[in-house]
């Protein structure tokens, strides 16, 4: 193994992740989805319902629902049932760290 080969593996790993990161950035590129993620990040896990998120984000419930469905399908957000309501949580650690880099904070 030469000195140049030692750097090939990390670079190959980053290149392999590029499609995944591109999809994540595409999802974050929508203002509504980014606003919902910021709200989830601030509130903490499992604390906000669909209607709470829609109201705080200033969007219709249908708009929030469509955005959260995409984020859930991508594995960035999870949903769990709490009685008759669904509650949402930001579960993608990469996105969590990225929101911190953007200045995101937590309520607690």
TrEMBL record:
SMART domains: HTH_ARSR. It comes from Corynebacterium provencense. Keywords: DNA-binding, Transcription, Transcription regulation. Residues 11-108 form the HTH arsR-type domain. The lineage of its organism: Bacteria, Bacillati, Actinomycetota, Actinomycetes, Mycobacteriales. Gene3D superfamilies: Winged helix-like DNA-binding domain superfamily/Winged helix DNA-binding domain (1.10.10.10). This is HTH-type transcriptional repressor CzrA. GO terms for molecular function: DNA binding; DNA-binding transcription factor activity. Pfam families: HTH_20 (PF12840). It comes from the Bacteria. The gene is czrA. The keyword Cell inner membrane does not apply. PROSITE patterns: HTH_ARSR_2 (PS50987).
